[in-house]
Amino acid sequence: LPLISVWRYLYFSFRSRFIMRNLKLFRSLEFRDIQAPGKPQCFSLRTEQDTVLIGSEHGLIEVDPVIREVKNEIPLVAEGFLPEDGSGCIVGIQELLDHESVCVATASGDVLLCNLNTHQLECVGSVASGISVMSWSPDQELVLLATGQQTLIMMTKEFEPIMEQQIHQDDFGERARKVRVWSREFALQSTSEPVAGLGPALAWKPSGSLIASTQDKPNQQDVVFFEKNGLLHGHFTLPFFKDEVKVNDLLWNADSTVLAVWLEDLQREENSTLKTYVQLWTVGNYHWYLKQSLPFSTCGKSKIVSLMWDPVTPYRLHVLCQGWHYLCYDWHWTTDRSSGENLSDMANVAVVDGNRVLVTVFRQSVVPPPMCTYRLLLPHPVNQIMFSAHPKKSNDLAVLDASNQISVYKCGDSPSIDSTVKLGAVGGNGFKISLRTPHLDKSYKIQFENSEDEEVNPLKLGLLTWVQEDVFLAVSHSQSSPQSVIHHLTVAPSAMDDEQGQLNISSSVTVDGVIISLCCNSKTKSVALQVAGGQILKYLWESPSLAVEPWKNPGGFPVRFPYPCTQTELAMVGGEECVLGLTDRCRFFINGTEVASNITSFAVYDEFLLLTTHSHTCQCFCLRDASLKTLQAGLSSSHVSNGESLRKVERGSRIVTVVPQDTKLILQMPRGNLEVVHHRALVLAQIRKWLDKLMFKEAFECMRKLRINLNLIHDHNPKVFLENVETFIRQIDSVNHINLFFTELKEEDVTKTMYPPPVTSTVQLSSDPDGKKVDLICDAMRAAMENINPHKYCLSILTSHVKKTTPELEIVLQKVHELQGSAAPVPDAVSAEEALKYLLLLVDVNELYDHSLGTYNFDLVLMVAEKSQKDPKEYLPFLNTLKKMEVNYQRFTIDKYLKRYEKAIGHLSKCGKCEG
Question: Which residues form the ELP1 first N-terminal beta-propeller domain (predicted)?
């Protein structure tokens, strides 16, 4: 009989996809060797009491895994509900809140109500053919029983029978199964086509959209999905060969984002070691990712009896093992990214996908998932990724796989081609590869003091952090008390030159409380620990004593988070190193003080804090001289006085990473795609840095691409710019770009209007006292260009004359005329015709014609007139008349025509007496 899926959940909505993030172990809880008779068979949870109900062939017990004690024990053998020979079996346990009791179903057919306070037992029903499965609806209004006669019985919460239906039909094909879907009213809604090789596992997605099962195919085993109408809708392949494993169960977590697959090795060879696996799968962009793989032994105390997701906490998984071992794992989503802050950091983001690590290098390319820049191939499924905390080696990464082996990949020259590194979207025939991929430097096996620890708990070590070249920090939890142990993993001396190295636990420090997060500052080397109770501790890992002390705020008081934070970072805020934390409920804390309650993601980059909010904005704050009050004020409303701090983004956007020493901010949209935005605060900060370093070319290209007003190049520091005009011209080295700079010049000081600098800026904000900023720049740049290469920058020199407050058009025209008269060609020089065509783009042709006429040079006038739209029949007679006049009278006539009356009178006075 196929297992019956849990009832369809109606009250969970589908949540955002988590494509560029991984599941990271938040904390684990372990209760070994529970003192109880018999062997465990199944279990359930009491969510309000945080206790676990476990059924065995002798009865029911209630345990508290936190304090590690048995709270209740209900024997069922003495009451006659289970046989004394130990052959009895409990097939289902469910706490009923309305009844204030627990419902227990036995394989012999009894349905019992047990009051855990009074230990009173009541048999509310019995099925003669026995019961194989009991399943309650989420609202606990209905219960389904699968009987030994292959029927389904539906009852109310008062155990009144409603209907009984046959499960099977006579026309089922050989080696084929069907999926049948009933409504809540027990009406048959759909029956799928016979599916060959369909497995017994069945799991209905809580969001109600899909039903998961398994299917054996000729060369593989797939997890397949059915719609409610019985039609197949997608699949993914398990990473095993055919007949290598069998699937015991499939389980969706409460918010439908993670599918747990429970598998078991099949016996293929005698005396072979068999294992059981719990795999966690997520989906994004129609691709299924294997995020976690937990191997358990199939013999002895480590064999899995049952597992289930927590109905309240979506990413909490409960596991019960045969030797009365209970394990509880809490995961949370995290983005594994490199933390360097210099140009050598490639802004790497790594994604776990089974035995592959998909790495995207955002500095060079933005590759949409599930594609990547390159991928690392590991021998076993990957459970955790960590980048080096060394500032100059931030591209190096280490990978922890399911066999507790750490593979270290380093960037640099490799002695040979690494077969474990494969190019992704940036590779291909005919393409030149400009990317330097890492290579496998060494693999290390973690040596446990007690090998049993690894067998019982495959995730014995968590929160791995790579703090030094050959030093890792890891955290484990005590089996008997609420304490944690920080381990130093160092390379064994004998393994320094071996191909397969070994990491030993060189030292350990015990900490009171359960450590749930560990973060390291790559600059200061500080390590902060977060304990489940909220305390923040500072771990002095470099000191000989390996001391742990409370993290204190600037006032000298210990820091404490009111709620556990799933993401923690260290950053310098106002000159003090602070701990930043974000809860899964979007509450954001700095040193224990709540700064905002609508933050969806955050990232610390250099001296900036970037956050995305529920109001669909991305805010950026400079932490150099910030305070908690200023941050609270800035996040309290969506309107801020300084417009560069806030940017609207798409609903549900989350920060993936920031490219160091650049302006790119990578966001992930709810539908799974990636977008690159250039936050105005990052852009202006980076431009100011470039200008301070006299890196004019980088600043200019960025401003031109992102439409930043080019006046900022001068206005940021006028004195420095005017002193380095020649450097600016040599770096830009483009006539078109210099002309673009000229055309955007205006008298306005953009540092006072458009781009006000940070309050703490030390740059002298001053402009020319006479307000002739444009004239100063034009004169300075023209002098520099004439000194460098007047022929190459001819058009820019002409532009500098035209752009002045009072355009010097006569000088411009004279220079054009000189070009026409030049005989020998000069390299990089422009012709008079090209120069004149360019001038007509800057100046109105009629105005240019009048100014050319004012030079009294008729060759120049004719040259301008020919490029205009004027009719030769209009200007040629006029020019011919002027040519026939006496020189002074000619100039008088021209000045009178141009309404230059003072000059006209001067020329008129020079005219001789009128003859006749």
Answer: 20-174, 176-311
Q: How far is C-alpha 496 from the geometric centre of its chain's CA atoms?
A: 35
- The CA–CA distances, whole Å, from 738 to 692, 697, 798 equal 20, 11, 12
What phi and psi values does residue 641 have, to the nearest 5 degrees? -65, -40
Please enumerate in sequence order all residues whose Cβ is within 8 A of that of 78, keeping only pairs 6 or more positions apart, or say none: none
Spacing of C-alpha 819 from chain mean position:
59
Q: Which H or E element spans position 800?
A: helix 794-802
Max CA pair span of the chain:
151
Task: Specify whether the CB–CB gap between 212 and 236 falls below 8 A.
Answer: no
Q: Could you give the CA distance from residue 16 to residue 667 in angstroms, rounded to a whole number?
A: 13
SS3 percent helix, strand, coil of the chain, rounded to 5, is 20, 35, 45
Quick check: 858 and 874 in contact, CB under 8 A?
no
Question: What's the one-letter identity of residue 291?
Answer: K
Check residue 673 and give its pLDDT.
86
Residues in contact with 145: Cβ distance below 8 Å, sequence separation at least 6, in sequence order: 105, 111, 127, 131, 133, 134, 152, 153, 155
What pLDDT score was predicted for residue 150? 87
Q: 40: which strand partners? A: 56
Place of tokens 């701990």: 579
Per DSSP bridges, beta strands 316-321 and 325-334 are antiparallel
- Report the 10 Å Cβ neighbour count for 509: 17
Which regions in the chain score pLDDT beneath 50?
A: 1-16, 172-173, 916
Q: Give residue 826's pLDDT.
A: 73
pTM: 0.88
Domain map of the chain by residue range? Answer: 22-333
Q: 10 Å Cβ neighbour count for 507?
A: 12
Give the pLDDT confidence score for residue 307 in this predicted structure: 94
- Which helix (H) or strand (E) is 388 found in, with range? none
What tokens were used for 751? Answer: 């540092």
Give the per-residue pLDDT at 884. Answer: 75
Residue 236: CB atoms within 10 Å: 17
3-state secondary structure of 693: coil
| Contact status, residue 701 vs residue 718, Cβ threshold 8 Å | no
Cα–Cα nearest to 223, from 207, 234, 209, 210: 234
**Cis preceding linkage at 370, omega within 30:** yes
The correct answer on CATH 3.10.20.30 for the domain covering 22-333 is no
The strand pairing partners of 398, in sequence order, are: 386, 408
Q: Does residue 507 sit in helix, strand or coil?
A: strand
Instruction: Tell me which H or E stretch contains 62.
Output: strand 59-64
Give the Cα separation of 622 and 645 in Å (integer).
Answer: 9
- Residue 344's contacts (CB-CB under 8 Å, 6 or more residues apart) are 392, 394, 395
Measure CA 112 to chain center: 49
pLDDT of amino acid 4: 42
H or E segment to which residue 489 belongs: strand 483-491
